[in-house]
Design goal:
The structure holds 2 protein chains of 2 kinds.
Chain A: E1 2-7, H1 12-27, E2 32-37, H2 40-45, E3 53-56, E4 59-63, H3 69-81
Parallel strand pairs in A: 1-2
Antiparallel strand pairs in A: 1-3, 3-4
Helix pairs in contact in A: 1-3
Chain B: H1 3-21, H2 24-43, H3 47-50, H4 59-73, H5 77-90, H6 94-107, H7 109-118, H8 121-145, H9 147-152, H10 169-186, H11 190-193, E1 195-201, H12 206-216, H13 230-249, H14 259-276, E2 278-282, E3 285-291, H15 292-311, H16 314-348, H17 351-358, H18 363-375, H19 383-392, H20 397-409, H21 412-422, H22 424-449, H23 454-478, H24 482-485
Antiparallel strand pairs in B: 1-3, 2-3
Helix pairs in contact in B: 1-16, 2-7, 2-10, 2-14, 2-16, 4-6, 5-6, 6-8, 6-20, 7-8, 8-20, 8-22, 10-15, 13-14, 14-15, 18-20, 18-22, 19-20, 20-22, 21-22
Classes of the chains: A alpha+beta, B mainly alpha.
Chain lengths: ~80, ~475
C-alpha cells in the first residue's frame, strides 16, 4: 500500500502534479492512497522550500517543479520494487 | 438620464478602458513580461539564491539576498508563501523573511514592467527603490522587536539551504534575449519609433471599420482616453485565437509539444509584430509602417528562437512555456475583468471627491491612500489600472505611490495567511509598520514631485528615523520581556 502526498497550497501546479501522480499510479495499477497537504506547518516538516512537492511513502522525491508522467512512473516502480 | 442610457454609458466606459489596456503598447510590455517571469520561475534554480538565506549567513548578505529572491523567484503566492515560511522557520529568520514578503509583490518583473508601461517609469522606479529601502528597514525592525524568539529557531539545521546548483550561462543569455524583446517594444527612442518604410495593403473598407469601432466605443482624447483602432481590433482577435490554441497546445506542454503549441507560439510572435508596427486605415486600404520597433522585435524573436533551440534542453523549454502559460492563465482573465470594472466605476466617481481627499500631498491624503490599499484586495496587477484611474481623476502622485506601496503588500487575505505562519502579534506589528512606511513613502515622493529640494527631504527622513529609533529604544526598555512571551 503506497501513500502519495502532494504538498502545496492548491495552486495550478499542485493540481497538475496531483493529476499526473494519479495517472501514473493508475497506469501501474497500484493501490495508493492520495493525500493533499496544504497546511504550511506540515509542508515545512518535509523541508520543502517551494511547492508543488511530491512525497511517496514519506520520502520527498521532487519539489518546486512539475515532473513528467515518465519520471513519476519511474519513482513509483523504484519504490514498489525496492 | 434614463436607466438604459446609464447602463449603456457604464458598459461603454468599461469597454473603452479595456480597449486602452489591450492596445499595442501594453501588449508589447505585458507579453514579454509574462515570458520573462515564466523563464525566471522555470529556469533559475532556486538554491542559487536561497543558499544565502540560511541561518549562518551574515546579515549583510541575507537581507540583500532576500530582496533578490523576492524579485527573481517570487511572482505568485505558490512561491512566496512556502519560501517565506522556510526562511522564517528554518533559514535566516524573521528579518529577511519579512523583507522578502514585503518586497516580492512590489518588485517582481510583472508588477514593475506593468507600472512603468501604464503609469510611468518614474513611479515604477520610486516603487522599486522605496520598497527596497523600506523592505530591508521593516525587516530589521521586526528582527529587533522579536529578537528573543528568533534565537530559539537557531537550534535547527542549515541543510535546507545548502543547495549548490549553478545558473547556466545559456539561461542567462536566453533571459537577456527576452529582456531585449521587452526593451525593443517599449523604449521610446527615436530610431525605434521612426518609420523606415510603408506599405499599403489594398483592403477596402478599413476606414469605415475603424469609424464604426469609434462609434461603438466613444472616447474623449482630451481626457487621455483611447478608442479601439483597427489595429486594436486585429490584436484583440489575435489574442482570442492565441487563448484557444494555448488551451489545446500548452495545457499539457510538460508531456510534449503538439501542432497547437506551434500555432499558439506563431500567433504570439505575429501579435507582437503587429503591435510593433504602425497601422493607419486610409481610403486606399490599410497603410502599414515598418518602424524601428518592428525590426527590433523581429530580431529579438529570431534570437530567442535560436537560443531556445540551440542551447536549452527540450524539457527546459517545456517548463518555461508551462510557467509562462500558467501566469497568463492565472493573471490575465482577472486583469481583463478588473480593467473592465475599473472602467465602469470610473464613470461613477466624481473627480471632485478624489481631488478633495487626495488631490494634494497631505498627510490625510497619503493616509487615505494607505487605508484604501490595506483593506481592499485586488488580484495581482489590477492595482495598476486602479492607480491609473485615480491619477486620471486628479489624485496627487504622492498619495498614489502610498496606495501602490500598501495595496499589493497587504490585504485581509495575505494578513490571514501570514498570521498562520508567524502568529497574530507579529503580523499586526508588520501591518502597522507597512502602513507607517507607505505613508512616509508617499509623503516623500509627493514632496519630491512638488519640487521640494532633496536636502529638505533628507532632513525630514532623518528626523523621522531619529524619532523611530527613540520610540523603539523606549519600548524595548519599558517592556523587555513582552516579545519573548508572544
Amino acid at each position: 500500500m503506497l501513500t502519495i502526498k502532494v504538498l502545496g497550497p492548491g495552486c495550478a501546479n499542485c493540481k497538475k502534479l496531483d493529476a499526473i501522480a494519479r495517472e501514473a499510479a493508475a497506469n501501474l495499477q497500484l493501490d495508493a492512497e492520495f493525500i493533499k497537504v496544504s497546511d504550511f506547518a506540515e509542508i515545512m516538516a518535509y523541508s520543502v522550500l517551494s511547492t508543488p512537492g511530491l512525497v511517496i511513502n514519506d520520502k520527498v522525491v521532487c519539489a518546486g517543479r512539475i515532473p513528467t508522467l515518465a519520471e513519476v512512473t519511474k519513482w513509483l516502480t523504484a519504490i514498489t520494487n525496492g | 438620464m434614463d436607466i438604459q442610457g446609464i447602463i449603456l454609458r457604464l458598459v461603454q466606459g468599461g469597454l473603452g478602458n479595456l480597449a486602452a489596456y489591450l492596445a499595442a503598447h501594453v501588449l508589447l510590455c505585458l507579453v514579454p513580461a509574462f515570458a520573462i517571469a515564466g523563464c525566471m520561475t522555470a529556469l533559475i534554480p532556486k538554491d542559487t539564491v536561497t543558499r544565502f538565506l540560511g541561518r549562518n549567513t551574515p546579515k549583510f548578505l541575507s537581507y540583500p539576498a532576500a530582496t533578490l529572491a523576492a524579485s527573481v523567484l517570487a511572482v505568485c503566492s505558490c512561491t512566496i508563501v512556502p519560501l517565506f515560511a522556510g526562511i522564517y522557520k528554518k533559514g535566516a529568520g524573521l528579518g529577511p523573511a519579512i523583507t522578502f514578503l514585503f518586497f516580492a509583490p512590489a518588485a517582481n518583473i510583472l508588477a514593475l514592467v506593468y507600472t512603468g508601461g501604464i503609469i510611468g517609469v518614474d513611479l515604477a522606479l520610486a516603487r522599486f527603490f522605496l520598497s527596497l529601502a523600506f523592505g530591508i528597514g521593516i525587516g530589521m525592525i521586526m528582527a529587533l522587536l522579536f529578537r528573543r524568539e528568533d534565537i530559539a529557531h537557531d537550534a535547527l539545521t542549515d541543510a535546507l539551504f545548502a543547495g549548490q546548483s549553478r545558473l547556466r550561462s545559456e539561461v542567462v543569455f536566453f533571459l537577456l534575449s527576452l529582456v531585449a524583446l521587452l526593451l525593443a517594444g517599449v523604449l521610446k527612442l527615436e530610431f525605434l519609433t521612426r518609420s523606415y518604410m510603408e506599405l499599403t495593403l489594398p483592403i477596402p473598407g478599413m476606414e469605415g471599420f475603424q469609424e464604426f469601432l469609434f462609434r461603438l466605443v466613444p472616447f474623449d482624447p482630451t481626457k487621455g482616453e483611447e478608442g479601439v483602432t483597427a489595429q486594436g481590433a486585429i490584436l484583440i482577435s489575435l489574442l482570442l485565437f492565441i487563448g484557444l490554441c494555448s488551451w489545446k497546445g500548452l495545457e499539457n506542454i510538460i508531456e510534449g509539444a503538439n501542432g497547437w503549441t506551434w500555432t499558439a507560439l506563431g500567433l504570439s510572435a505575429l501579435t507582437l509584430l503587429t503591435a510593433a508596427s504602425g497601422m493607419t486605415p486610409q481610403p486606399a486600404g490599410l497603410v502599414i509602417f515598418f518602424t524601428g520597433k518592428l525590426f527590433g522585435v523581429a530580431l529579438s524573436l529570431a534570437l530567442i528562437t535560436y537560443l531556445a533551440r540551440r542551447y536549452l534542453e527540450t524539457q527546459e523549454v517545456r517548463d518555461w512555456l508551462w510557467e509562462t502559460w500558467r501566469f497568463v492563465k492565472q493573471i490575465f482573465p482577472l486583469l481583463v475583468a478588473g480593467v473592465f470594472l475599473v472602467g465602469v466605476i470610473r464613470q461613477l466617481l466624481r473627480p471632485e471627491w478624489i481631488q478633495q481627499l487626495a488631490g494634494s500631498n497631505t498627510l490625510a491624503g497619503n493616509l487615505a491612500g494607505v487605508v484604501f490599499g490595506v483593506f481592499m484586495y485586488f488580484p495581482t496587477l489590477v492595482e495598476v489600472p486602479i492607480a491609473k484611474m485615480f491619477l486620471g481623476l486628479g489624485m496627487h502622485r504622492g498619495p498614489l505611490l502610498a496606495y501602490l506601496m500598501a495595496d499589493p503588500e497587504l490585504s485581509l487575505q495575505s494578513i490571514l495567511i501570514t498570521s498562520s505562519i508567524i502568529g497574530r502579534l507579529k503580523t499586526w506589528t508588520y501591518v502597522g509598520w507597512v502602513a507607517l512606511f507607505s505613508t512616509l513613502a508617499g509623503l516623500l515622493y509627493g514632496a519630491w514631485v512638488d519640487g521640494v529640494n532633496v536636502w529638505s527631504i533628507t532632513v525630514y527622513l532623518f528626523l523621522f528615523l531619529v524619532a523611530l529609533a527613540l520610540t523603539l529604544y523606549l519600548a524595548s526598555r519599558r517592556n523587555p520581556s513582552s516579545s519573548a512571551v508572544a
